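Exercise 7. Predict the structure of Protein gp37 from Parabacteroides faecis.
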Amino acid sequence: MGQKASIWNPWHGCHKLSEGCRHCYVYRTDGKYGKDSSVVAKTEKFDLPLQLKKNKTYKIPSGNLVYTCFTSDFLVEDADEWRAEAWEMIRTRQDLDFLFITKRIDRLHECLPADWGDGYDHVTICCTMENQDRIDYRLPIYKAAPIKHKIIICEPLLGPIDFRGELGDWVEQVVAGGESGKEARRCNYDWVLDIRRQCMEADVGFWFKQTGSYLLKEGCEYKIARQFQHSQARKAGINYERKKNL
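Solution. The predicted structure, encoded as tokens:
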């Protein structure tokens, strides 16, 4: 994208929902400090998009990509009372691009603002689908959802995935990646390549984001240190950019 990025976590904490949550990095990080990740609470950065510097300019400058709610889920039930205010801030800052990832796409309709229509131009909503079970449940809901910009997140990738021919112009990209951490489950490179194949056939962008801690490739298992998991994925050279400009 070439955009500068900012992080906005209006609330922190979540509840484990599916297999991809088993070794959640937020729980892992909070655990080091004795913090209970299942308690969802507003953060001191709740109004960050509207916060000003001393010179009266926004702390998040115009044009930035804002990674939103990366230590929670924007659609988590516990945040229902705060979400309308968060949407209002997003609506106010149309000079930014907001992106959040959810495992709760089935809650989208009850969480949208009244003026959403078929989506805000400056909001990307990504949906996690970590295995075939979650593909079969979440993908039809996600495909039908009124969202202008959609990205499927297959991370942590926990098994082979068949999109059953459902990929197409409605989704911009699929992101795949292995699981990190000491308890990480193994990622098979063949699963990654097959997702790439399906993306190329449908002309959907593909990004191999990270290898994960344990990668099985051509019959050999590789243990990859955290600091090399992204760079090793880049070295594979298998990312794909869609040919159509939609």
